[in-house]
Task: inverse folding
């Protein structure tokens, strides 16, 4: 999945508000969506999670891809430092501006992008310190879905195109079946 | 969110493979994505879940929308009966045909659509009895993300448009803030 980042040096996803036991499966989905939809970094704020890290590393090993991974970072300091080093911060929230209204502007900017994905309660700091507060529908649903649709719009659906030449284990699409080729068997 | 179903009588989401304790949060996300992205039914196969139902009903009550809800149904019988009554079955799986190759055909058909969303292991029956096995990327990630992107493609992004006239509590999009209007305060 490398290469999608395109003109940007980096598209990282910062997961905030992770509650260790309760959120481990949801946070794992966030990490796997980050990879599959073309981000090149996943950063878990606050505590680390063995379970999330194990799942992400297993997928990277089996299915390929390069991805920066970090955990236990202080979220606010990370956001501040991202902006200070010239990057922009996009906070996904149902209260924000509809994605269709801002995605062209975000796509056009060559600045490294930090996509901030919260859990239920998000501190005011993130609304105030985001360059963009972006809504993927203005309805309550799922940060996993919001991240997928945001990245899909950012890359104009390129991540959905099947790439038969990517290295490693990969699916051979089929109308009725499970076909896999290449890479190690995991 | 009513009205999106368009020319189809029904777009229902059937969640299979739900494991009661382990999956309750992921299944709740599936249900909320079904609602927010325009499906008009959510069916939980196997056991019921108080937690999933409570979350879905609370969102429907606070944020509006009409949605058929059922749980505890036998999944295979449900799929068979959907097809026998003239509907079509779309199974989301990373092993299927890329969504971009089949979405126009699926959209063009006026048949009621049952979108089947599995958990980790899906029985062969669902591959064989689906009209379409559809992949949202051919990479492992999240059934929540797959459902959101599939419905987004089905409705050509119409569910992302902000609808200021929908009844009930709703968000007023803003660049920096949380503004809500109408409906009951929940």
Result:
């Amino acid at each position: 999945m490398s290469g999608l980042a395109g003109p940007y040096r980096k598209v990282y996803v910062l997961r905030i508000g992770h509650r260790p036991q309760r959120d481990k499966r949801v946070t794992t989905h966030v990490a796997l969506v980050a990879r599959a939809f073309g981000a090149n970094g996943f950063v878990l704020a606050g505590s680390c999670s063995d379970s999330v890290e194990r799942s992400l590393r297993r997928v990277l090993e089996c299915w390929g891809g390069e991805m920066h991974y970090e955990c236990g970072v202080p979220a606010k300091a990370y956001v501040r430092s991202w902006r200070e080093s010239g990057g922009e911060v996009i906070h996904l929230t149902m209260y924000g501006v509809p994605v269709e209204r801002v995605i062209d502007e975000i796509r056009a900017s060559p600045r490294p992008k930090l996509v901030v994905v919260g859990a239920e309660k998000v501190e005011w700091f993130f609304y105030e310190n985001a360059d963009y507060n972006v809504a993927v529908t203005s309805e309550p649903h799922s940060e996993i879905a919001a991240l997928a649709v945001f990245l899909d719009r950012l890359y104009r659906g390129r991540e959905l195109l099947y790439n038969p030449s990517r290295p490693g284990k990969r699916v051979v699409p089929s109308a009725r079946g499970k076909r896999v080729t290449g890479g190690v068997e995991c």
